[in-house]
Design goal:
single chain; 535 residues; alpha/beta; six-stranded mixed β-sheet; 17 helices; 12 strands; 49% helix
């Protein structure tokens, strides 16, 4: 055989095969990127529910027959689309001080998106490897995909302080009955069920005949079951309202103006003017760092607050705080409570701080400045805490970013009657960020069975009842107040009692059911075959 013939018969086919494999991988990565970007349309403010099965089924189908490494790349492309379009609003915070941080906006968001995309990549690779090693039916494949996805989401919510933003289950937050499942299994459990049902159409598309019909009916049954269970919860009686009137103040101070010394008096005066408008209230609520200074050190400011508070009323406001220590001054991001005398009743220090916003990780090694103004890094508080205030139901406090963490908002030993979420989304302008942040707050209400009251500097301030429904809101960019009664709490949910153990129970129960059904079907097929042969 001459060299030309050897090339045509051996080398050339191998080269063409490699080109085809690379083209196939590139096509699936492109499909994965587009499907990941599509998931952003499933979250608030759009919440297009029909795109949920399209996006996740596209990834599910695109992973078939791929090796571990290739599946990782396809999953990473999906994550890059999901986070690249889903968290672009973070770039807005870099432009608050554009002269210092503006050039970092695109590289920072691109790098964060690429890093977060590793988690969908892990899910995809784990699914593809297990599916490739063992033959399994469509149902088990869907369960494996949903399990892999949920494990990766859970890891994303915990690794390196965690970032559980836009969990798959949040596609259901605008659908009252469907989101109620989180009361039993939490947001991670809701993601598991959402993804499982979402990939059933993909499995049906790859099946044929009777199996296709069975899988399609199972998808419809899953949606119907979640809707029915959620509807029953919505119809159940909540506890009696506590009879407490709230006033939420949204000062709407742009972030670039908030800390300018020349604007301090105008900012404070705006909050006082809004707080003293006609109307009755028992609790006055100001957002995160509403007062641009150390309020406990400012006797005059506290006297002005006391004059604005009717007798027996309480103010909860976000303020920075500082405490001298042997190692120097420590700074805290806090919510402090004041009575009508201007005295501090109690307070809470934020324990889940924002990396690079409130502190710089590995500060000794990373030559990076914080995005927020201040004299030093914030120190984390001890953890979730329930505050007892005179004449006010017990309250838990979550400051800004803390509200996104399932199961880490409420003190398990002292259950509160409501959650106060003081936040400042002014960093993100009129982007989709505040809407997505609000979605997390609504899911905490469902999980805990507690109303969540949100005071935001520039919006979105809201009153959220214990089923996650928005009772009242002030949108981004509005200046004003919300006067509303505190909604009633519900009895402790299963998730509030057992946390993410409910997720584990859900996954184990689902696999037990599926494996039993698979074994039963296999036994029937074998029995039928034996009977046919013996007959």
């Amino acid at each position: 055989m001459d060299q030309r013939a050897a090339f045509d018969q051996v080398v050339k086919p191998e080269i063409l095969n490699r080109i085809a494999l690379r083209h196939r991988l590139l096509s699936r990565m492109t499909l994965g990127f587009a499907a990941g970007a599509m998931t952003v349309l499933t979250f608030p403010p759009l919440s297009i529910l029909l795109l949920v099965p399209v996006a996740y089924s596209a990834l599910f189908v695109g992973l078939r027959d791929l090796s571990f490494g290739r599946a990782f790349l396809v999953g990473w492309a999906f994550g890059l689309g999901q986070f690249g379009f889903g968290i672009w609003w973070i770039a807005e915070s870099f432009y608050v001080e554009a002269e210092r941080f503006g050039t970092m906006a695109i590289p920072a968001v691109a790098g964060l998106s690429a890093g977060l995309a590793i988690f969908p990549a892990i899910a995809a690779a784990l699914f593809a490897e297990i599916a490739r090693r063992g033959a399994m039916g469509s149902l088990l494949a869907c369960l494996l995909f949903a399990t892999s996805w949920t494990v990766a989401e859970w890891l994303r919510g915990h690794v390196l302080t965690g970032f559980p933003w836009n969990l798959a289950g949040y596609a259901l937050v605008d659908y009252a009955a469907l989101r109620q499942t989180a009361a039993w299994v939490g947001s991670y459990g809701l993601s598991f069920l959402t993804v499982f049902v979402a990939v059933l159409p993909g499995a049906a598309a790859m099946a044929s005949g009777r199996q296709r019909l069975t899988i399609s009916l199972m998808a419809l049954a899953g949606i119907a079951t979640m809707w029915a269970v959620g509807t029953l919860r919505l119809q159940s009686d909540a506890q009696q309202p506590p009879g407490v009137d709230l006033r939420i103040v949204q000062g709407n101070i742009p972030q670039e103006e908030k800390w300018a010394p020349e604007n301090r008096e105008a900012t404070f005066a705006r909050y006082l003017e809004l707080s003293t408008r006609p109307g009755d209230f028992d609790v006055l609520l100001w957002p995160e760092t509403a007062f641009p200074g150390f309020l406990d050190e400012d006797t005059e400011a506290r006297a002005r607050i006391a004059a604005a508070l009717p007798d027996g009323r309480v103010l909860l406001t976000g303020v920075p705080d500082r405490v001298p220590s042997e190692d120097g001054t420590r700074y805290f991001n806090t919510v402090q409570a004041f009575d009508e005398t201007g005295e501090i009743l109690t307070g809470y220090a934020k324990h889940h701080l924002v990396p690079f916003g409130e502190y710089v990780p590995f500060r000794g090694w990373l030559p990076i400045e914080r995005l927020t103004a201040g004299l030093g890094d914030f120190t984390p508080g001890p953890g979730p805490r329930t505050l007892a205030l005179p004449g006010v139901p017990l309250v838990a406090v979550a400051i800004c970013y803390e509200i996104i963490f399932p199961g880490h908002v409420v003190d398990d030993l002292f259950r509160p009657d409501w959650i106060f979420n003081a936040t400042n989304d002014a960093w993100f302008g009129t982007s989709i960020g505040p809407e997505q942040h609000l979605a997390s707050a609504r899911m905490r209400a469902v999980e805990e069975g507690l109303p969540v009251i949100r005071a935001a500097n520039t919006g979105i301030s809201a009153v959220i009842d214990a089923s996650g429904e928005i009772v009242a809101r002030l949108d981004t960019g509005e200046t004003g107040i919300i006067d509303a009664s505190l909604p009633s709490a519900r009895p402790p949910t299963l998730y509030a009692s057992f946390g993410d153990w409910m997720l584990l129970a859900l996954i184990l129960a689902s696999w037990s059911w599926a494996l039993t059904a698979n074994a039963t079907a296999h036994y029937r097929r074998m029995r039928k075959t034996v009977m046919q042969r013996s007959g």
